[in-house]
Amino acid sequence: MKNESLITDYKSFLDNGKTERECVSALISWAEKAGFRNVYECASLKAGDKVYVQKMNKAIALFVLGSESIEKGMNILGAHIDSPRLDVKQNPIYEKDFLVYLNTHYYGGIKKYQWVTLPLAIHGVVCKKDGSVVNVCVGESEEDPVFCISDILPHLAQKQMKETASDFIPGESLDLILGSSAPSKDDDEKSEGKKDKITAKKAILTILKEKYGIEEADFGSAELEIVPAGKARDLGFDRSLILGYGQDDRSCAYTSARALIESKAGSRTNCCLCVDKEEIGSVGATGMGSHFFENALAEVIARLPEGYSELSLRRCLAACNMLSSDVNAAYDPMNGDLFDRANASFLNGGIVFNKYTGSRGKSGASDANPEFIARLRDLLDKAEVKYQMAELGKVDQGGGGTIAYLAAKYGMNVLDAGVSVLSMHAPWEITAKDDIEQAYKAYKAFLTLSAV
């Protein structure tokens, strides 16, 4: 590794950005230290200015304004900052036979069985009726308790072991243990129903009230996410790999944002876009399927000397070049039959270009133009950046999607380009340090790309 400080900062970003809100908060702090300003605090903008627009604390767009007319387009690095996890339901706390549970609903494509018997943490916010917001992060400090989802012991799991992997852990069983109480000596239906069940849950609610000022009804306006507890770590005796939660897609979000924030204004305007909800279809007000990006760009254009027009916005969007900074599945030697090895991406192989994502017959793909790819190949070769061309598994095995097709609808050039990830969507994912560095170098080089 040539850039250990990059890796150290990246692991810190993973540790402190386990939710979308935490990522946006970190990016704003980082950007403001580098001279970026909230666009709504700017009456006018000019070449060289650096601004950001955030939405609901869960999506952000950062801009470095170039000297050329905005109608000539931008270079965009677009990533997502949501990751598979468990979300807390709105009426979540219940007691069952002397154990107190937190009811959850899984988010994104997970293997449910991977989430049991792990130390888990609770991150998020509780919004109260008086307008105050309680920030919650429990399970990350050594002094904190952690939480866990229990599983059946092997001695009693004969039936469970015969079920399919998608079924043997039902989604409704992914509930966290929050606390416990002891059965009374005269344990009967009457005492259990009127004393023990109430006492244990009340004890947990009392703790929440004393420590956070949270009432049970406040969960109705909470956004709490369950994530693996613990820090990202070096993996392997040679320390060449990283084991961490949320590397899909925060490995690309971090390197994209860093490349943009460290970039200098040139002739072309540059942008880094970090959005939410990709793992569930890019929906909602903070997903790429919303109007967040074009609204953010409109706010920038409105403050430029030439002023806003719908035509200027549309011309800009159509003239953009974009790397959809999203990860690709790393070749897994233990399951090599799932991959077309000649068209697979490998750990330590450099940033991955994926011409089309989607599934099977390219369903849901944007399919990048070869002319655009050729320009990028030339650019990265001159910058001595290591890259590889790949697909996500064999044609009939499945596939995946990114935000690329949603950006391509504007008529811009878009190509998926990101980091290889082993054990993608698992609670703990694996990347290679060298790939993180190569992605960062690739994104920095891309921001120098000129208009066609």
Protein traits:
452 residues, 6-stranded antiparallel β-sheet, 10 helices
Molecular structure report:
The chain has ten helices and 22 strands. The strands form five sheets. It has a nine-stranded mixed beta sheet with strand order 1-2-3-13-4-14-20-16-18, with helices on both faces. α5 packs across α10 and α6 crosses α7. The radius of gyration is 24 Å and the shape is globular. The two termini are 35 Å apart.
Share of helix, binned: 25-40%
Q: Averaging pLDDT over every residue, what do you get?
A: 93
Percent of residues in β-strands: 15-25%
Oligomer: single chain
Distance between the termini: 35 Å
Q: Helical stretch count?
A: 10
What overall form do the CA principal axes indicate?
Answer: globular
Order of strands across the main sheet? 1-2-3-13-4-14-20-16-18
Which structural class matches the secondary elements?
Answer: alpha/beta
Biggest sheet details: 9 strands, mixed
The low-confidence runs, each spanning 5 or more residues with pLDDT under 50, are: none
> What is the radius of gyration computed over CA atoms, rounded to a whole number of angstroms?
24 Å
Counting DSSP E segments of at least 2 residues, the number of strands comes to 22
Task: Describe the structure concisely.
By secondary structure, the chain is an alpha/beta fold. The chain has 10 helices and 22 strands.
SSE arrangement:
Blueprint: H1 4-16, H2 20-33, E1 37-38, E2 50-55, E3 59-64, E4 74-80, E5 85-96, E6 99-107, E7 120-127, E8 133-138, H3 158-162, E9 176-180, H4 189-212, E10 222-228, E11 233-235, E12 241-244, H5 247-261, E13 269-275, H6 292-302, H7 310-318, E14 321-324, E15 328-329, E16 351-354, E17 358-359, H8 370-382, E18 387-389, E19 399-400, H9 404-408, E20 413-418, E21 420-421, E22 429-432, H10 433-446
